[in-house]
Amino acid sequence: MNGPTRIAMWSGPRNISTAMMRSWGARSDCAVIDEPLYAHYLSTLEPSRRDKHPGVGDVLGSQSNDWREVASMLSGPIPDDRPIWYQKQMAHHLSDEMELDWVGELTNCFLIREPAAMITSLIKIIDSPIPEDLGLPQQVRLFERVREMTGQVPTVIDSCDILRDPSQGLSALCNQLGVPFDESMLAWSPGQRPEDGVWAPHWYASVYQSTGFAPYRPKDEEVPASLRGVLDECNALYETLAQHTICVES
Question: 3.40.50.300, 1.20.1070.10, 3.30.200.20, 3.40.720.10: which CATH number matches 5-242?
Answer without folding.
Answer: 3.40.50.300
